[in-house]
## 1
Amino acid sequence: MDGRLQGKTILITGASSGIGKSTAYEFAQSVPSGVKLVLTARRIDTLKGIAADLEKQFPKTKVLPVQLDVSDPAATQKFVDGLPAEYQEIDVLINNAGLVRGVDKAPAIQEDDLNVMFATNVHGLIHMTQAVLPRMLKRNNGAGAGDIVNIGSIAGREPYVGGGIYCATKAAVRSFTESLRKELIATRVRVIGVDPGQVETEFSIVRFYGDKSKADAVYAGCEPLTPNDVAESIVFAVGRRENVVVADTLLFPNHQASATIMHRKT
Ligand code: NDP
Ligand code: 8X3
């Protein structure tokens, strides 16, 4: 793993929390000889703290924290175009930034929630992919090289009540991921989909607009995945031999069998 990933430039969106943050630590830990991490999110102070801690714990890893709202297409393109020279050749793009807002059902879905979820989870992921892909395709004498990892969800495979918009965004991610893999089949760019089930992060706090007690209730009687469980799968997929594509991963905690079937201890 260390030899395969040594010196790679890895861009992670949504790295200020949860799965994105754990993925940054998992790469740094798995590659003691060092990687270059570009970490983006809206909360730049949090990212700067993570960057400082990573460089302290893993002296051979270099970290560039950048404030970026992926729902802003112009900012995304400007960010990619303006990357410092030593970070310009992105080897691995982890499209992780995403969120859920609310549990409203039609016809009560709030317009703002609808727009923010699609702009972040779908448009944001597509714009970042479009901004990074041209340089990946030029590498390797035009054969292309690099990995694009899209974080979907069980919600993209199985829609549930109160998740109409979030599930639709993740179904769109799944569909885009599959199209992209097919479109890039004549290149050496790998397209990797990772669909987690229940993971305890800030995800449910965001869903309930900051109400921690409602978020805690989601995990009552359960043992959800940790963000590090997902990070390990991401790093495993990226660390395979270049000819191996871990195309599609679905991860559940042991008590979960589908988006809605969970065994809860009473
Ligand atoms: P967190 O809320 O802990 O992390 C979400 C990350 O996305 C944060 O770093 C946040 O940073 C970032 N983010 C949100 N909106 C934007 C934006 N507009 N621009 C840039 N960054 C943004 O949740 P998770 O770690 O759980 O979520 C990560 C991904 O995993 C998401 O795509 C989610 O849908 C997916 N997922 C989560 C599951 C779960 O149960 N937790 C299960 C399946 C999939 P900041 O606020 O600083 O911008
Ligand atoms: C998060 C999983 O089932 O809470 O994507 O929507 S779920």
## 2
Amino acid sequence: MDHFLYRNGQLHAEDVAVAEIVAAVGTPVYIYSAATLLRHYRLLDEALAGLPHLVCFAVKALSNVAVLRLLGDAGAGMDVVSGGEYARARAAGVAGEKVVFSGVAKTAEEMRLALTGGIRQFNVESEPELEALSAVAVALGREAPVALRVNPDVDAHTHAKISTGRRGDKFGIPIARAPAVAARAAALPGIRMVGVDVHIGSQLTSLAPFEAAYTRVAALVGELRAQGHAIDRVDLGGGLGIPYARANAVPPLPSDYGAMVRRSVGHLGCEIQIEPGRLIAGNAGILAARIVYVKAGEDRDFLILDTGMNDLVRPAMYDAHHDIVPVHQPPAGEPTKPFDVVGPVCETGDTFARGRELPLMVAGDLVAFRSTGAYGAVMGSEYNSRPLAPEVLVHGDQFAVIRARPGYDEMIARDRIPDWMHEDRTAAGGADC
Ligand code: LLP
């Protein structure tokens, strides 16, 4: 359930009409619902009730500092994968002790940042990373809390580009090697083993792959304990899918996921961590855009929007489906016809949907892409020099711009002309390009 519903024929974000936000902020614009974000966080938190646990929001899904503050204030920890995400989590006011550092390529600089700023654990993905972390921790006179991220060789049956737990994927330590790596970790100065971590992929629509992976992790914890390691924590990663197309089958409920977690690792007596991103943020956001032109094609008409693959890359990158709805609700029984919905970017890949049944719309009408709260704005770029779409957070009948749309000057001001090119172009009446 989310809080983007029609009321009096107008799409609303909670109690605010999307058209009102657009009138104030323009299009394209990402709009998030605070109530939906919190609802999803709480559902997961409740799913693990009774077990010692921490829900760490995967910052990569939606990294705006206002959103992180909202979730952090509700009790969430954060899962970060870069120094930048670590800095965002801290800027949002989340204590270092609630921040987990994941990622395959943590640099010494990122390790230093987290070790000095405070960190709950590093999810270490390789032996060289372990050695590097030890060296950094020793140099700083600190101890790095470490969970070993293992690769359980489980197929998550999701899109190949977001599957991470198969043998041959770049992630994690092969599970069979984990005992040897744990022994090395125990011998290294500056390292304190605290747990085991696994993440097998994203947008999973069945519990079976999770259960297979978690069962392997449980067996590993037993083995590591038998070796004498104190394993107090298991981090089960993220990955629970969301319904993208309203018509489709519903992925597992958080409560079913919670029951499966209890079944597979509940007996270990470990603190449970999870790292959900999409489930919390996905259906908590929409991308609103305006139709610039309706163009008659050979066999089908194009809806040409003022938002493109630079704002929402998922359809181009993963052939992802996003429901597209008119902001002004068409009257019941209004005819529909198939449109190709495209953006302004100069690539055919900048196509959001082909043959999508939509009401007959005209230039100037507003549409909303649903389920774009996760991996939407964060994957945005300025390709074709289109400024990043702004972000708005709605809370009841209030809304606030939580990231403003940059002006062209602001965008261009980041570029620098090298000294050797300097010459006064003002006298010549401007650049002669
Ligand atoms: N933990 C780790 C270590 C991860 O790599 C990820 C996602 C998560 C947690 C959160 O997974 P979630 O709960 O959101 O499924 N850009 C892609 C998704 C990439 C996911 C990468 N890792 C997309 O738009 O579908």
